[in-house]
Amino acid sequence: MQLCFKSLPSKCQVHPRRSVASLSVPTRRHPKASCRPSRGLANPVHPISGSLREKNVIARSTADNRKDTEAKTYTPNTVPSDRVLSIWRRVDAVCFDVDCTITMNDSLDLLADFMGVKEQVEELTNQAMDGSLSLERALEERLNIINCSPQDIKNFIAAHPPSSRMAPGIKELITALQARGVAVYLISGGFRELTLPVASYLGIPKANVFANRMNWQWDDETGEPTKLVGFDMSEPTAHNQGKPEAIARIRQRNPYNTVVMIGDGITDLEAVQITGGADLFIGYGGVVERPAVAAEAEWYVYDYKTLVDSLRRFRAAMIGSGAWACAAVRMMAQNTLADDPADDFVDEIKMWVYEEDYEGRKLTEVINETHVNPKYFPGFDLGVNVKAVPSIVEAAADADLIVFCAPHQFMHNICKQLMGKVKPGASAISLTKGMRVRPEGPQLISQMVRRYLGIDCAVLMGANIATDIGREQLSEAVIGYDNFDAAEDFKKLFERPYFRVSLLPDPVGAEMCGTLKNIVALGAGIVDGLGLGPNSKATIIRQGLVEMRSFSKALYPSVRDDTFLESCGVGDLVATCYGGRNRLVAEAWTKAQLSDNPRTFEDLEAELLKGQKLQGVLTSNEVQEILKTRRWENNFPLFTTINRIINGYLPPKYVVDYVAGCKFEVPGVESEEDSLVPLRRTPSARPAAPPTLTPVTPSPA
Ligand SMILES: NC(=O)C1=CN([C@@H]2O[C@H](COP(=O)(O)OP(=O)(O)OC[C@H]3O[C@@H](n4cnc5c(N)ncnc54)[C@H](O)[C@@H]3O)[C@@H](O)[C@H]2O)C=CC1
Ligand SMILES: O=C(CO)COP(=O)(O)O
């Protein structure tokens, strides 16, 4: 707080003898403020500085004061607007009024009390309040009365160490700010000698302290300061409007875009009222609450935790609650809860759960009670900070980072529900593996998110079998990105010691890999169902990789070759062909085909996956539509053969004879002109009669 008694308008002058109690109510001590009594203080609320503060408010702002006393009520802005929050979150430098960092009042008043001259200083203060003393004279006269020696100051600091009078949460706030590279300054209308110990305790460099300097008489013989003889008037804080002036100097010396002032007095509020000052004033009422300040502040807080929490830039949400969604949200929850210095994330993560009954109860209720999703990811604790919500809009609406991880067939409906319902600046990432085929062409899930929601969407793809990640076994993934900053944020959100994430500037290539490997995994399952060994499976994997790359590059020429050697390419292909659900169900389906009891994919999916979803069968049909439309079938013999096998047009053994398999024409299947209709949507059981296979005329690709 800076005293400012000069040029008082006559109508707001205060009678010098008027007691604090008789003043109208411009200050209120916040009930939560912790005030430790200290030596020399009978009353934990310092009487002198208490009165100074009140009178200062009156002296500085008659209009505000009148408003306070007449209206008696005021409404502080305790909820920041979007504008205020966005300034706060991108702040480069924060200037604190030193009074807001300590629970006791102005250190100079404490010092007067310590020196036993409390009443005289108070008397002088009252005279100043009459308007007969300027700010400079008031400070000077008070110093004359206090008349301390350097040793007195040392004794005073020893008696009132900064650690004993810190405002609650101030150290955490300053640590959080500095951890994210924000410069922190202290600006005081008091004296440097008293402010520096506070700065040192808070880890604020001396160069970042603006306060008045005491002038000392120096002993010629000892070379030591001996007697206080006044103070240096050249500091900005020695004059009216010293705080905006100090901020202007800070800005001149540093290339800060955004500077915020935090204070509790009218002189702090001035920081934003003068050109060249701060961009935002945040009022602090945790120690002393001044209605005139609270009424004017764009944001008024009563504790620093509010500011620490709101600094956390990102609230994450998970859209999906299947096996991979749960494994992924578990990692996210571990990260958001972790005590990282920058503390980028809000701890709580909302997870949208497609509501269903689980053993007579709502699945969301069970998850919130047990922190486990017993249907889709049994046996794994998701984290206390994961909140299951049945409303997709509620889950996504306040999120800055939205993670999509639902089976691809549901993604169109999900996007439609979220249109216009997500934060404009939010970023998304898709963990979904699959694509949509529309009459005008294919659409990747990330493209769908971008188109429907109007936000950036990266992808996370890799060899990521959910249960292994739940067991915290080493896995890798790539984030395919267009927007590097968002990709870095997502990397922080997902990366764990057992989950290595690298950034890849080929989002389309990564997503195509994740999508197409599910078709190849069906082929691997068929190989297993046929009882063939590793050599045959390796053949399918190799040919599958070749076709994945050719198909991706044929659709999207910018896709990079190297992408196929990443975790999203060969890594995911191997993992899924050995341990995935597509492989599992295709193996069972093949065995059933070869037995007397053929089964459908739907049937086996329901039985073996218990609600989890296969992606490969749908994807195979979707990709086949594209191959047919573009007359590319012969160029993709494995994809085509697998599609014919799973739709019952070829026996499973053709999986290893895919060149021949793709040359057979499927009878009764639509003409090429009608080719947007898939071969057959519902996979059949074993066909009644073996299909008649005739070679197709090779078509130009
Ligand atoms: N499970 C895994 O190991 C991995 C899966 N993925 C991919 O992640 C995506 C999501 O798979 P999972 O999380 O494993 O899910 P899942 O297959 O385990 O579970 C199915 C999910 O779909 C939901 N659901 C059912 N009907 C729905 C409807 N009408 N609308 C919306 N949702 C509905 C269920 O509630 C459940 O959450 C898929 O694209 C998959 O390929 C990727 C890597 C690993
Ligand atoms: O994508 C996966 C692993 O990365 C999981 O594949 P499945 O759906 O075949 O289990």
From TrEMBL:
Residues 688-701 have a biased composition (Pro residues). Residues 506-656 form the Glycerol-3-phosphate dehydrogenase NAD-dependent C-terminal domain. GO terms for biological process: carbohydrate metabolic process; glycerol-3-phosphate catabolic process. It is an enzyme of class 1 (oxidoreductase). It catalyses: sn-glycerol 3-phosphate + NAD(+) = dihydroxyacetone phosphate + NADH + H(+). Residues 317-484 form the Glycerol-3-phosphate dehydrogenase NAD-dependent N-terminal domain. GO terms for molecular function: glycerol-3-phosphate dehydrogenase (NAD+) activity; NAD binding; protein homodimerization activity. It holds the Pfam family NAD_Gly3P_dh_C. PROSITE patterns: NAD_G3PDH. This is Glycerol-3-phosphate dehydrogenase [NAD(+)]. GO terms for cellular component: cytosol. Keywords: NAD, Oxidoreductase. CDD domains: HAD_PSP_eu. Its EC number is 1.1.1.8. Residues 23-47, 673-701 are annotated as: Disordered. InterPro entries: 6-PGluconate_DH-like_C_sf, 6PGD_dom2, G3P_DH_NAD-dep, G3P_DH_NAD-dep_C, G3P_DH_NAD-dep_euk, G3P_DH_NAD-dep_N, HAD-like_sf, HAD_sf. The keyword Translocase does not apply. Residues 678-687 have a biased composition (Low complexity). PANTHER family: GLYCEROL-3-PHOSPHATE DEHYDROGENASE (PTHR11728), GLYCEROL-3-PHOSPHATE DEHYDROGENASE [NAD(+)]-RELATED (PTHR11728:SF8).
